Amino acid sequence: MQSYLHTAIVTDAVCREHRGPLEHPERPERLDAILNGLAKSDVMDLLVRSPSRAATLDELKLCHTAAYIELVQKEIAGGAAQLSTGDAFICPQSWEPALRAAGCSLSAVDAVFERRAKNVFCAVRPPGHHATADTGMGFCIFNNAAIAARYAQKKYGAQRVAIVDWDVHHGNGTQDIFYADGSVFYFSTHQAPLYPGTGLRDETGIGAGLGTTLNVPVAEGTTGREMSAIFREQLVPAMKIFRPDFVVVSAGFDARVNDPLGGLLLTDHDFADLTDIVLDIAKEFSEGRLISILEGGYNLAGLASAAVQHVRTLAGHL
Ligand SMILES: [Zn+2]
């Protein structure tokens, strides 16, 4: 039924304008590495482009407090080097990239729900999964994945959204935003102990959200084979119960072997495996609707090759 639909990519050159201190690992060259990697591969020919756009303030407010949004705007305009809420660098140009990173994710939601693409990869920065409703931290300003989930619920009536986060770090912001909300399932694999220190096994949600947070902390040195087993044995059964009608991937490629910020051993092939698993979930419960949003990944060559393998798998060209 969807065979005529392609995988889309959405990105925005403005996302390059967000710059931290020299040598900071979260740098504009990350996007260049991914886009050059795709251009040099056979994958780009399989993709269509989705338009980029900026998120509106009302869209940011789907997940963030008005006071926090105002603070971000004020601190960027005031020339601060870092948000006062946490370790997220900013520069005078950071406002528009932050809006575009979130807006590209919303453009991706539109593309899958309006059936212009079968799934979408968002090559954007700054990343988002550490940002809570009122706290930017961990290189994250606005929580792109969380805003996309809420937007799908509001605009398209999605009832149950699954956010699958394989970044090497725990997405404390995403967990926090949906912790008491049973309509968004947050699944995370992450190295522990590691920044930000949250994501313990017994953090499973509260109130209406009890049981819709599933954390699987793993030790340094965990392999892709072990990670695939966790996805098959823990994520898949949970999704059979939750039955998501939309899947969002927080795609952090810092879980790859040789990442300077992580100690896991996933290969490019392993990211293809994980991608296959989430695609199967989307196919079974969500009519294939899936978007993937870039989070971390700091070894430029490794980031590029893992992302290419991920997008190749999304496009169904193995
Ligand atoms: Zn990370």
- Strand arrangement within the widest β-sheet reads 2-1-3-8-7-4-5-6
The end-to-end span amounts to: 20 Å
Whole-number radius of gyration? 17 Å
Shape: globular
Number of strands: 8
Percent helix, as a range, is 25-40%
The number of helical segments is: 9
CATH class: Alpha Beta
Number of domains: 1
| Ligands (ions, cofactors included) | zinc ion
Order of H and E elements: EHEHHHEHEHEEHEHEH
* Major sheet details: 8 strands, parallel
Give the CATH topology.
Arginase, Chain A
Observed structural traits:
318 residues; alpha/beta; Arginase, Chain A; 8-stranded parallel beta sheet; 8 strands; globular; binds zinc ion
Describe this structure in words.
This protein is an alpha/beta fold and 318 residues long. Helices cover 37% and strands 14% of the residues. It has one domain (7-314): 3-Layer(aba) Sandwich (Arginase, Chain A), CATH 3.40.800.20. It has helices spanning 29-40, 57-60, 66-77, 95-113, 144-156, 172-177, 224-242, 268-285, 300-314; strands spanning 7-11, 47-49, 119-123, 161-165, 184-191, 213-218, 246-251, 290-294. An eight-stranded parallel β-sheet has the order 2-1-3-8-7-4-5-6, with helices on both faces. β4, α6 (172-177) and β5 (184-191) form a beta-alpha-beta unit. α7 (224-242) runs parallel beside α8 (268-285) and α8 (268-285) packs parallel to α9. The site of zinc ion has 7 residues, from loops. Zinc ion is lined by residues 167-169, 252, 254, 295-296.
